[in-house]
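How a chain folds remains the central question behind the approach discussed here. No coordinates are needed to read the tokens, only the vocabulary itself. For completeness, the protein is quoted in full, as a sequence line and a line of structure tokens:
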Amino acid sequence: MCKKKSDFPAVKTSESATSADAHTRAPAVVQRVPEPRIPKSKIRRLGRFRSAPLPRSADPAMASASPPAPRRSARARRLPPRLADSAIQASTSARPRTARARRPLPQPADGAMASTSSAPRRSSRVRRLPPRLADSAIEASTSARPRAARARRPLPQPASTSARRRAARGPAAQPVFLPDEIWEYIFLRLDAAVDLVRASAACSSFRRIVSEPQFLRRFRSLRSPGILGLITSSGYRRFFPAGPPHRTAPEARALGQAADFVFSFVPNPFSWHFRHARDGRVLLSRLISMEIRLEDFVVCDPLYRRYVMIPRIPDDLIAASTQYTMSRHLLPVLAPAGENDEEGSFRVICTVLFEDKVMAFVFSSCNQTWRGITSTISLPDGVIEYMTYYAHGCLYWIVGLTLNSLMLDISEMKFSIIDLPPHSFDSTSGIVECAIVETADGRLGCLTIVDGTADLYCKNWQSNCVGGQEWLHDKRISLPKDSGITYNWEVEGTAGHYLALVGESSRNSEHIVLDIKTFLVENLCISSNGAIFGFPYARFPPPLELPSI
């Protein structure tokens, strides 16, 4: 039997109340709870509660304080009763936290709520955030508001330091172009040849000025190339590069890797012996006759691996020398070119001693010929040393056990005998190291080394040292000393205004370089495998010195 709707008042009242609560509280959590798929039959059954009137609260204050519920979009889906109840409980528990986070809205007067219009309709596409995310978003926006407001304020920008300087200087100055003569004067005042090489790499105009032959000739006349290492003069030929902290250590290491100091590019390289070195060239010789003690010569450039075979001395010059009784064959040397010779030319001078005469054979690379020079000076009794010194355009040989030196003026090709300082010879031991040098002020110097101390004696230079003043003591230089180690210092050779010395001890051999102009002592290298006696090798960097052969 069918029953009417009026027979279910209790059910209608309870369901309508539950539906009313769901209608009023569900909008805050519709998007937060996932909605299950509801059959159409249940939707039709729940649709009858839409027309039921919603009961007002009994409390008039609550009725006036609670805002009217916003109209629900037609597309919004309703939840089933069970899910709606759980959603209402979750939203009710989260309301106090949300209410604390939100700012209180201005409330109208009593009775005005009833007359106010309903809340504006919310677009169906706008999505609401869950309560927890909404709280964090509100807190973040609230804390960021003052910071954003402060960032938007335009701050006064002070003028930069460079702008103030430009304003004080006025308009920018135009670049000044100096003539080549001024740049040449500046480049000539550079201290080291490496600095000139760096300057030439700056631009094409600097490279053009530096590469001029006249400028290079002037620069080389005012500077001496630094000593890059030592070439062993006896036994197996080897090059010992300068090591740190010497200032030429990087160049010496590069030279040792690029150059060939075994001279493998020369025919029969192991038949030649080292004799002398100057301006990057090396003089080698080999014996051709034991009777007259003459030799073949070859001049080499180990960096570019080039050599020049020197022709043998003509027979007529040899015949002129054989009529004398030969006493000694001096060490042949490489001499610089003359004033009227071409750039890059050289000379080879070989001096031969007789009982009452001195004879020299001179070869010039300009005309490729030999010539002989004979002098009738009387030589003092003594042993002439092999070491050759060059100063003021003259070659010097020390006569051992005496206070004399043999001098050859290569510009006039004349021999003479000069006196040495009294302290250059020790009457008790007779062992004093002595070297002829050219000082910075243009005087002739004699450096003596005794007991680890070098004394420099000087005198004014005159032609052939005839009528010059007496030797005067000028400087005392202390050589390196180690506690408990005694060094026996010897002269290895000279290169420009540099003097190479070797100190032999029971532990090792220490090689040093003494600058005659500044009296600066620098460590060159240390050889720990026995005593090594070498000759200093010096040359300019390749951009400043083209192949010399």
In short: The chain has 13 helices and 24 strands. The first strand starts at residue 227 and ends at 232. The chain has a mean pLDDT of 74.
